[in-house]
Specification:
The chain has 459 residues and is of the alpha/beta class. 37% of the residues lie in helices and 14% in strands. Helix 13 links the parallel strand 10 and strand 11. Adenosine monophosphate binds next to helix 3.
Length: 459
């Protein structure tokens, strides 16, 4: 097994790694660090939690140190592009740590905060800039930044960039970069659009890949319950009371949905906070800080906001709403299986979300355990219901087809048939039915739960 000491990294960097508490390089680090140190371009398929930040940061810091020069005004020597402000901040924090005491200036630039401070910092020139694409273009437009002297480019979480509609800004950014540079490109998944984007960024890349999506899925103890949409709030509350989670992340499909969950939980004395795009940066930071410190045990998030959350030790991931893109499910449950840990995921699947679950099973090859509804809940109808498109009422199969152009994911990915990614009525195998021997009740022994069963008032 390779050790950090085996890498041709400068000694002070190795020292910083040891001080960070790392003993063994993670698989992505083992694969990516040697070719990156040789100056090669890298195409990395790896999810958050695999140690990819160090995989690209350590060799980059090595190169920056080896050819040390003062960056000119409004210049950066290394540019890291990240899809969200949380991730940008997290990468900048990690890189600051890895380069501590080495005389390097690392900064971040993202939207949602005043631009002036970022302009002032960039005016002096920085070694490393970690930025989201939108704010980066603003800074360039305002002539506060030039990319002409970038030596190393990192594009992180490219698939999320695609989901967030950053492809156009990225295509604008590429021609501003010098042709002679090292590029490191990371994505958790590699659909065709992403590999085409990678072609634009990279020259003869070395491909490295770890943690295929099923690995996370296998590590996480996945459970589902089939339930009516209107009963989800009550079941969530009961589940929280029973499990008493330390660090639970609840995913909703919409910002409004996240706020509603928080409101309902707080109303029954379960303290939680929401983190999503409508929250201001200080609000997000406060919520995240309270969650990290354990002041609140439950954070309710949309997919986009949750992407950059770097909290080790998340014990539970709840899919209050099923994601309508299967890869997103893997990202979500991966939050509870960071750095080799395992955790629990629990999906509340409404009748119109069953197809989403089938898609997930197809992608991961893992069937979640079905937990039967506790007593006192109405069984959901078993017949197929067409997937809900948020903002529209669910429709039954056999009625007018749904999906189509209103499904932003499908439409964007240019799926045939007007963008409906589902196979249509009755498509796909039925999965996730109760296992042999009958489903398990998670609440069987819980007295408090049974008490609450009687009280429907807080549903
Ligand atoms: P990342 O995938 O870069 O977000 O890293 C996930 C987590 O793993 C972070 O908390 C890192 O500090 C940690 N980490 C990265 N590399 C190692 C390593 N070689 N040994 C132990 N922890 C690591």
């Amino acid at each position: 097994m390779t050790k950090f000491s085996d890498f041709a990294l400068a000694e002070p960097i190795k020292k910083r790694v040891i001080e960070s508490g790392y003993t063994t390089p993670s698989p992505i680090q083992q694969q990516a660090i040697p070719p990156a140190l040789e100056g090669k371009d890298i195409l990395g398929i790896a999810q958050t939690g695999t140690g990819k930040t160090a995989a690209f940061s350590l060799p980059a810091i090595h190169h920056l140190l080896a050819n040390k020069r003062r960056p000119g005004r409004n210049e950066c020597r290394m540019l890291v592009l990240a899809p969200t402000r949380e991730l940008a901040r997290q990468i900048a924090d990690s890189m600051t740590g890895y380069s501590k005491g080495l005389g390097m200036y690392v900064t971040s630039a993202f939207g949602g905060v005043p631009i002036n401070r970022q302009k002032r910092i960039l005016a002096k020139g920085v070694d490393v800039l970690v930025a989201t694409p939108g704010r980066l273009l603003d800074l360039i437009d305002q002539r506060c930044l030039t990319l002409e002297k970038v030596e190393i480019l990192v594009l992180d979480e490219a698939d999320q960039m695609l989901d967030l509609g950053f492809i156009v800004p990225l295509k604008k950014i590429v021609p501003m970069l010098p042709k002679k540079r090292q590029s490191l490109f990371f994505s958790a998944t590699m659909p065709k659009t992403i590999s085409q984007l990678a072609d634009q960024f990279l020259t003869n890349p070395v491909q490295v890949s770890v943690a295929p999506q099923s690995t996370t899925a296998e590590r996480v103890d996945q459970k589902v319950t089939y339930i009516n949409q209107d009963d989800k709030q009550r079941l969530l509350k009961d589940f929280i009371n029973k499990e008493n989670p330390d660090h639970m992340l609840v995913f909703t499909q919409t910002k409004h949905g996240a706020d509603k969950v928080v409101k309902n939980l707080n109303a029954v004395g379960i303290h939680s906070a929401a983190i999503h795009g409508n929250k201001s940066q200080p609000q997000r930071e406060r919520a995240l800080g309270d969650f990290k410190k354990g002041k609140i045990n439950i954070l309710v998030a949309t997919d986009i906001a949750a992407r950059g959350i770097d909290v080790d030790g998340i014990t539970h991931v709840i899919n209050f709403d099923m994601p309508n893109v299967s890869e997103q499910y893997v990202h979500r449950i991966g939050r509870t299986a960071r750095a080799g840990a395992s955790g629990i995921s629990y999906s509340l699947v409404a009748p119109d979300e069953r197809q989403f679950l089938r898609d997930v099973v197809k992608l991961t090859g893992v069937k979640p355990e079905v937990i039967a509804l506790p007593e006192g809940y109405d069984e959901p109808p078993r017949e197929e219901v067409a997937p809900r498109i948020y903002g529209q009422k669910p429709k039954r199969y056999g009625a007018k087809p749904t999906g189509g152009r209103n499904n932003k994911h499908s439409a964007r990915k240019g799926r045939p048939g007007g963008g409906n990614r589902r196979g249509g009525p009755g498509s796909g195998e039925r999965t996730g039915g109760p296992k042999k021997g009958g489903p398990k009740h998670w609440n069987n022994a819980s007295k408090s739960f049974k008490r609450r069963q009687k009280s429907k008032s807080d549903a």
